[in-house]
Amino acid sequence: MNCYVLLPFMLGIPLLWPCLGATENSQTKKVQQPVGSHLRVKRGWVWNQFFVPEEMNTTSHHVGRLRSDLDNGNNSFQYKLLGAGAGSTFIIDERTGDIYAIEKLDREERSLYILRAQVIDITTGRAVEPESEFVIKVSDINDNEPKFLDEPYEAIVPEMSPEGTLVIQVTASDADDPSSGNNARLLYSLLQGQPYFSVEPTTGVIRISSKMDRELQDEYWVIIQAKDMIGQPGALSGTTSVLIKLSDVNDNKPIFKESLYRLTVSESAPTGTSIGTIMAYDNDIGENAEMDYSIEEDDSQTFDIITNHETQEGIVILKKKVNFEHQNHYGIRAKVKNHHVDKQLMKYHTEASTTFIKIQVEDVDEPPLFLLPYYIFEIFEETPQGSFVGVVSATDPDNRKSPIRYSITRSKVFNIDDNGTITTTNSLDREISAWYNLSITATEKYNIEQISSIPVYVQVLNINDHAPEFSQYYESYVCENAGSGQGLFF
């Protein structure tokens, strides 16, 4: 059996196509194989491939030539092309066996076509050679730019991270043939983000190249470019944006807004009263900005500070009652520190911020104050009206020292003057009443609502103002003619 020879062309270079239907005894036309052709052996056949560049803009591109060595050029043979793509993508000149691509090919859509070739003797209508498959491979050109796969990119990295810290890896893909030169070999570069970031050229790994402070800038936009053909001239490129946010670390200690606070407290305020707030600020956020306030210096131990963890304010409270007349001003020192500090960040918190607080005690109009909590006086009975009993004394504890007016509640026996002197208004009889319980009231003349009262006890002392008396009337009897010394009868 005879064979036919396909003489393909790629960019004008003739290639060897295998003999179809050749046997051991067949005579095969020998054609020198050019360097670079692709050959493989299958069932004793020598196979070759056609190569067609993708994206050719010509309406008819010559692929190669199919020819039997029995074809003597008398146009008695007819060449046929069968299989997927025959007639639509590829056509054959039935007389010459020349194969043409009639539409633009895209390797990324389809990289090879498997077709069948057949040669028919027109005079007999019979096949000169049996059908045989061959391959047309679409060769790649660099017509696809790199594209990033997982956009949008976003990463979070702690502020003050050291140089070389991994941030994120971006990856681009190139639809071109990775086995075709450098068409799909990518090189990454940084278009925006210097000097804080760098990118590894071959991996797309973004790393920190300079420390950053979140309090100065909390996020950065980085633009990464991927170029194919390892960045050589004519390379195509694609870009992506990466949003890099800095998370907070506790690298700032809280600092008081004011170096001096002035507060006031009423001397009538009960213990536990809130008398004012102090405030520190911290450039950190969240847990790193939580504070604890405390008293650093208070010799009187009169005040305390608690922390409002919702507002991060320090609340100054009264721990002991104050008295304007005893001490009308105080000075205390407060300090503040963070609640949570990691050991490796203690270098930022070596010295706590402090502030001084001046507290002024406000005077309150207080009621008169007696010198004693109660008084006990003694007086003999039967003393004349107006006799002296005793003296009580009360003073205004406030600075204005209001005069005091005294009075006795519901008593018809005693009287008291504006000097606090108690006298009798009637003669006293111990045998009628040995004790008197009085209530003395002191009232400020400048403010009659300021009143104080104390108890006064008056004991009436006995005098010998009564002759003895028999408890009953006695009637006695004596006999007449009774002698001296004789007893009487009752």
Automatic annotation (TrEMBL):
PROSITE patterns: CADHERIN_1 (PS00232), CADHERIN_2 (PS50268). It holds the Pfam family Cadherin. Gene3D superfamilies: Cadherins. GO terms for cellular component: adherens junction; catenin complex. GO terms for biological process: adherens junction organization; calcium-dependent cell-cell adhesion via plasma membrane cell adhesion molecules; cell migration; cell morphogenesis; cell-cell adhesion mediated by cadherin; cell-cell junction assembly; homophilic cell adhesion via plasma membrane adhesion molecules. Residues 1-21 form the signal peptide. It comes from the Eukaryota. SMART domains: CA (SM00112). The keyword Manganese does not apply. One of its GO terms (molecular function) is beta-catenin binding. Keywords: Calcium, Cell adhesion, Cell membrane, Glycoprotein, Membrane, Metal-binding, Repeat, Signal, Transmembrane, Transmembrane helix. Residues 68-148, 149-256, 257-370, 371-470 form the Cadherin domain. SUPFAM superfamilies: Cadherin-like. It is found in: Cell membrane. It is a single-pass type I membrane protein. The keyword Transmembrane applies. This is Cadherin 19. It comes from Macaca fascicularis.
